[in-house]
Amino acid sequence: MSVDRERLALVLGMMGSAHDSKALNAARLAVRMAKEAELAWPEVLDGERVVTEAARILLAENEQLQLQNQSLQEELARLRRPQLPKVWVLPQTPGEQTAQAIEWTAILNDWERSFITDMSERWRPPTERQQAIVDRISGKIASVARARGLHP
Predict the structure, then answer these.
(1) Over the range 41-79, which residues count as b (16 or more CB within 10 Å of their CB) and which as e?
(2) What is the pTM of this model?
(3) Pairwise CA distance, residues 10 & 114, whole Å
(4) For 44-80, what is the HEC assignment?
(5) Average pLDDT over all residues of the chain
(6) How far are the Cα atoms of 18, 30, 37, 60 from residue 13, in angstroms, in the given order?
(7) Mean pLDDT over residues 84-97, rounded?
(8) How far is CA 79 from CA 69, 84, 95, 124, in A?
(9) Of 41, 49, 140, 151, which is the most buried if we count CB atoms within 10 A?
């Protein structure tokens, strides 16, 4: 067990009281605190032991928190991983390609995701260069869909 060192310091300070009864009560309380903590006075006063014990407790808590953190990070990664659609249909228009790419963002890199999101917010038809990128992304989606056993 451990003793509340701050409280013990206050109690020991009361032993310097000018009132003998107050000083005696403080001494008895200090002895009782040490007994309740199952410590002898050399152990109570051994600062190095106290620091070592506190460090051991903190290390054990730290190790436990690291395990919890790792578990929570794994769970968060699992929850963040979007599920891929169970159905794949060959898109016929640029709008369908963009909508499908939004559904399959889990397989797109950050740049492709950003590009498709921007394209989905446009009201104009894509330029030739933009359409080439959309076609490439659609091809990537088709490859993954086929590899997963999905066919149009």
Answers:
(1) eeebeeeeebeeeeeeeeeeeeeeeeeeeeeeeeeeeee
(2) 0.49
(3) 63
(4) HHCHHHHHHHHHHHHHHHHHHHHHHHHHHHHHHHHHH
(5) 90
(6) 12, 10, 19, 33
(7) 90
(8) 15, 13, 29, 35
(9) 140
Q: At what angle do helices 5-14 and 20-36 cross, to 10 degrees?
A: 160
Task: Kindly compute the dihedral angle of the four CA atoms of residues 109, 151, 98, 114, in this order, to the nearest 10 degrees.
Answer: -10
Amino acid symbol at 124: R
Q: Residue 8's CB: how many other CB atoms inside 10 A?
A: 17
Query: What is d(CA 44, CA 63) in angstroms, rounded to the nearest whole number?
Result: 27
Q: Are 101 and 141 in contact (CB under 8 A)?
A: yes
| Under 8 Å between Cβ of 151 and 89 | no
Per-residue pLDDT tens digits for 61-73: 999 999 999 999 9
Here the tokens at position 126 are 């894509």
Residues above pLDDT 90, as percent of the chain: 60
Check residue 21 and give its pLDDT: 92
Q: Number of C-alpha atoms within 13 angstroms, CB side, residue 142? A: 12
